[in-house]
Amino acid sequence: MKFMKLGSKPDQFQTDVENIRYVATELATDIVISVGDVKFYVHKFPLLSKSSLLQKLVANNNDESEIDIQDIPGGPEAFEICAKFCYGMVATLNAYNVVSVRCAAEYLEMYEAVDKGNLIYKIDVFLTSSIFRSWKDSIIVLQTTKAFLPWSEELKIVSQCLDSIAGRASTDPSRVDWSYTYDRSKTEINGLRKQLTVPRDWWVEDLCELHIDLYKRVILTIRTKEKMSENIIGQSLKAYTLKRVPFFTTKGNNVTKYSNVVETIISLLPTEKNCVSCGFLLKLLQAAIIYECGEPGRAKLLRRIAGQLEKASVGDLMIRSSNGDTTSVCDVDVVRELVERFVMREQCAGTDGSNKFVDEIMCKDFSDADGSKGKVGRLVDGYLAEAARDSTLPLSKFVGLAQMVSGFPRVSHDGIYRAVDMYLKEHPSLTKSEKKQICRLMDCKKLSSVACAHVVQNERLPLRVVVQVLFFEQARAAGSSTPDLPGPVRSLLPRGSYGSSATTTTSEEDWTSEELQGELSSLRLGNNKGGVDNADKVTAKKVKRVFSRMWSNKERRGETSESDTSASTSGEIKDAAVVVNVKTTNRTQKKLLEAK
C-alpha cells in the first residue's frame, strides 16, 4: 500500500481528559476549535497561516477564543491530521484516510493561494502519482469515497478512481505485473519463481469488495470507456453475486439491501446471449424470489433463462418455494413458467417477437438444430423425478408440467418413467384413476430393456401397465414393432403411440438407466426375501390376473363366438407363454399355463 508522510516534527498532540486534545508546547494555546464532540486547544498562527476558512471564522468571531465547526468531512480525525500539517508534525496519509483528509482540507480551504505547498496540493500529487497508479489502492480509495459524498464526487476523486480501475482492468493480461486477489500469476518451482499466464478475468475478485453502487459505476465505466468482453463482465457479475448475496434464507438478513444488490446485478447483465451461464441466471432468479425483487427484474430473468433453458441442469432448477400459501418444497410454478416461455419462444420464431413472454432476440435466434427441445424434455423429466420426492407436490402440478413437454422428442421415456415411479412411491395414497392418469404420461413402447425389467417387478404400477410392457417386450423380441394388441390393452396406450416403433436408449439417457438398474436391484433383493423364485412368481401372478380379467370381459360382452373365443384364448395363452418365458423361469411358466 502506498503512503505519504507529512511533516518532520514530533507529534505533540496529547489527550488531557476525554474528548480534549491539546498541543504540548511551552507556548500557551490561544484558541479552542470544537469539532464534533472533541475540543482542540491549539495556536492561531500555524492554523490560520494555511486555512482561509479559519481566518474568516476568527475574524467574524468578535475576539472570542472558541470556534465551532461541526460539519467538517472526516470529523475530528481528519481535522487533527490537517492541524498536524499546519504545525509541521509527522502525519501519515494512505489509501484509507486520504479521502477524508482531502475533503477536510477542501472544507478548511487550504489552497495554494493561501500558502504555497499547502495540503490540498500535496494530497492531489499523492493521489495522482501514487494512489491512482495502484490497482488495490484505487479500489480502497473508491470504497472510502461513499462516506464523503458529495465532497468526493465534487472533487472528482470518484471519477478518477473509476477511470483508474477501468483502465487497469482492461489492460492486456500479459502486461499485468501488480498483485491482485488470489494471485495466480506466479508460482514457485524448485525455489524459482516462474511467470505464468495471467487469466483474463484476474480483476473480478477484487471488485467484489466494493459497495453495489460503486461496483455498478465501475462496470458501466469499463463498458463505456474500455473494450472488454461481455463474457468477462458476466464472470465479474457472477463472482460479485455469489460473494455478496446470501442464498436460501432471509433470516437475519437485510431484505431491502440484498434486493437492491440483486436488482442491480440484473440490470447489468450483458445483452448478448450466453455471456452468463444458465445456472447463474437461475441462482439469480432464486435470489430475486427470496428477496422479493420487483416484477420487471424477475420477468427479465425468466426471459433470459428461457432463451437458454436447454443448458440448465436439474440441480439448477431445484428452486425452493417461498410462497407462504403453499406447503410445496419445490417451486414447480417457476419451472412451469420457464417451460412456457421456452415453448412461446419456439412459436414466435420468425415473427416480430412482440410476445410479452419473450424477447425479439430470442425469437430470431431460436433454432432446434441443436436438439434444444429434446434437451429441455429430458431436463424436465429429471426435474420431475426430483420434485416427486416432495410429498406435498399436487398431482395436478406434476401432470401439468409433464404434459407441457410431452410432445418434445425423446429417444427414450425412461426419464419420465423414473419420475412417475418416484411420484407413486412418495404418494402411496393415490386412487386408481389418479394412477392411471399419471401413467398415461409415458409411452411404454419407448422404455429401455432396463426400464421394462423394472416395470415388470414394480408393485406400485397398475397391472395393465405391466401387461402393456410385457406385450411390447414380446413384440420387440419377435422383431415386430406393431403387435396385435387386444382392445383392453390397446386402450391403455397414449394417444398416437400405438403402432410407433420401439426405441432404445442412448448415452444421453445412461444416467436414467443407471438409476433404474440400482432400483431394479433393490426390487429384486426385496422380492427375493421370501424365496429364490419369488420375483418370478410375482410376475406370473400379475400376468395371470390381468389375462383373467381380459378373458372374463370378453365372455361378458360376447364379442366373439365360442369357437373364436377358444381359438383366441389359445393364442393369448401362447403369447403369455412367450412373454413369461422371457421374464420367468421354466418352472414358473409351466405353473402359469397349468393354472390357465
Automatic annotation (TrEMBL):
Region (Disordered): 479-514, 549-571
Keyword terms: Ubl conjugation pathway
Xref: SMART domains: BTB
SUPFAM superfamilies linked to this entry: POZ domain (SSF54695)
InterPro entries: BTB/POZ_dom, NPH3/RPT2-like, NPH3_dom, SKP1/BTB/POZ_sf
Pathway info: Protein modification; protein ubiquitination
All residue ranges annotated as the NPH3 domain in the record: 201-476
Domain BTB: 29-95
Similarity comment text for this entry: Belongs to the NPH3 family.
PANTHER family in alphabetical order: OS12G0117600 PROTEIN
Protein name in UniProt: Uncharacterized protein
Organism this protein belongs to: Castilleja foliolosa
